[in-house]
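Lecture notes, part 5. Sequence design as translation. It can be helpful to think of inverse folding as translation between two languages: the language of shapes and the language of residues. The source text, in structure tokens, appears below.
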């Protein structure tokens, strides 16, 4: 147990703690208060400057119900977190009873194989300022957004050491003991353009006043911070020794790179007696500095029509206009390059203890090796550039607006597993009723993606010229794929 705690204190400072520190300043995707309240949907209806980040074609929507110009002052904030590592059900069942944590808890959390891993993610989105304008055939938008993404994972072997210590019973053969984490923080300036490509008077039996929109939103990315660690190892306990065969790589930018390099240089002196804590001292002010550059783009298309024929008759029991929209988009295409004092450090070593007392003797020997050699025996590489892919996602959605009632459906698939982005298909459903034409009552359901199935709710005030709305997401049962939590606020939105 002491062995693990000291290992964690040394290695995590290089990645886990730094990653969390970067996020302290500040299902992947951009959510407004409306889209989160409706089950994380939005591909077919999310308009104004929010469309830049979900489907730029939607900048042309709602010409008949909303003014042409929208301004957002602190124009939106959202945060989501969750994943299989955050399994609240298992935690409540095994970690709050006061009993010793046994293998049953780890079986439920990770499965029986020592190599099984569980991950979690966290994303924060803030739009300090944004605006959009819509004309008859064209629409423009300019939006500034700050983003922070975190992802991390640990495997069962790592958790065995954390919760139950080391023993020959569980590590008689070499077993994997791994963990990883990554934190990324950046800003983006997005310029959206939407055009009406086509207008048809009707589609027989389906709709009328059919319009087809296409949009693109290129963005310039300003990276502020990144750090990561990828630790892979095997641990074996025999009758006479403990063998920990490990390798790790961690990356940093800014002043931390210089601090790790200074420690590496100091250790080249045979008489060096210092510790890594004497050199590494993260300064939160560096997280706002510009550390490189990057480019990205969001693209999409939307079809909008008034219902006609049998489709309209199917909703005849609902008063008011009936409109159908279908959208398709690809978001976050691109990457970020960190090249301002970027550093990469790696180690590939074996720690062997052949003493008798595993609990105390191993701990003392390990502490000495940490101070002087082995676990901190990393080498800087010549790589002075770090490139991170954006969490690219494919989105398809539909929305039916029937008077005061609205229904939404989305299917989303992440192409890269970054932050809350998951390659596991995610489906969102949502419904909305506009009370007194001013108070939206929203509810949704979301399944798939990184977390267990979740429910969402939202409300607020939404007038023709003003919006102030909120939404929340929670996971009722975290048994299958862990817990999740999220929230969104519209900010102060003015239309004229």
């Amino acid at each position: 147990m002491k062995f693990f705690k000291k290992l964690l204190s040394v290695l995590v400072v290089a990645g886990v703690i730094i990653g969390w520190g970067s996020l302290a300043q500040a299902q992947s995707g951009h959510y407004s208060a409306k889209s989160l309240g409706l089950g994380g949907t939005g591909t077919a209806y999310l308009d104004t400057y929010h469309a830049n980040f979900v489907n730029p074609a939607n900048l042309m929507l709602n010409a008949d119900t909303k003014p042409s110009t929208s301004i957002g002052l602190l124009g939106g904030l959202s945060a989501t977190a969750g994943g299989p590592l955050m399994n609240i059900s298992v935690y409540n069942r095994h970690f709050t009873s006061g009993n010793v944590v046994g293998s049953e808890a780890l079986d439920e959390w990770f499965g029986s194989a020592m190599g099984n891993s569980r991950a979690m993610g966290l994303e924060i989105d803030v739009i300090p300022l944004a605006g959009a304008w819509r004309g008859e055939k064209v629409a423009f938008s300019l939006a500034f957004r700050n983003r922070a993404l975190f992802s991390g994972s640990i495997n069962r072997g790592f958790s065995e050491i954390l919760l139950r210590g080391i023993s020959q019973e569980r590590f008689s053969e070499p077993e994997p003991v791994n963990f990883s984490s990554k934190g990324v923080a950046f800003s983006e300036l997005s310029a959206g353009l939407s055009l009406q490509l086509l207008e048809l008077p009707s589609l027989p039996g389906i709709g009328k006043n059919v319009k087809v929109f296409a949009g693109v939103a290129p963005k310039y990315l300003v990276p502020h911070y990144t750090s990561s660690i990828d630790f892979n190892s095997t641990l074996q306990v025999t009758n006479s020794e403990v063998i920990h065969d490990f390798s790790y790589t961690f990356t940093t930018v800014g002043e931390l790179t210089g601090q790790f390099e200074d420690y590496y240089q100091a250790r080249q002196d045979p008489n060096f007696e210092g510790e890594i804590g004497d050199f590494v001292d993260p300064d939160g002010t560096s997280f706002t500095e510009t550390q490189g550059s990057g480019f990205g783009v969001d693209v999409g298309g939307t079809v909008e029509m008034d219902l006609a024929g049998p489709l309209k008759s199917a909703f005849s029991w609902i008063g008011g206009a009936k409109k159908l929209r279908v959208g398709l988009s690809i978001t976050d295409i691109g990457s970020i390059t960190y090249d301002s004092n970027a550093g990469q450090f790696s180690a590939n070593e074996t720690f062997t203890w052949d003493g008798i007392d595993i609990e105390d003797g191993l701990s003392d020997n390990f502490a000495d090796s940490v101070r002087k050699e082995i676990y901190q025996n990393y080498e800087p590489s010549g790589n002075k550039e770090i490139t991170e892919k954006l969490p690219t996602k494919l989105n398809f959605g539909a929305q039916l607006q029937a008077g005061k009632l609205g229904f939404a459906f989305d299917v989303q698939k992440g192409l890269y597993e970054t932050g809350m982005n998951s390659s596991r298909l995610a489906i969102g459903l949502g419904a909305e009723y506009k009370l007194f034409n001013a108070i939206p009552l929203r509810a949704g359901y979301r399944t798939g993606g990184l977390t267990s199935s979740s429910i969402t709710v939202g409300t607020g005030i939404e007038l023709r010229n003003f919006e102030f709305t909120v939404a929340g997401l929670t996971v009722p049962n975290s048994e299958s794929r862990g817990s999740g939590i999220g929230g969104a606020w519209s900010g102060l939105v003015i239309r004229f």
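The translated text above is only one of many valid answers, since several sequences can fold into similar shapes. Residues 1-26 have pLDDT under 50 and may be disordered.
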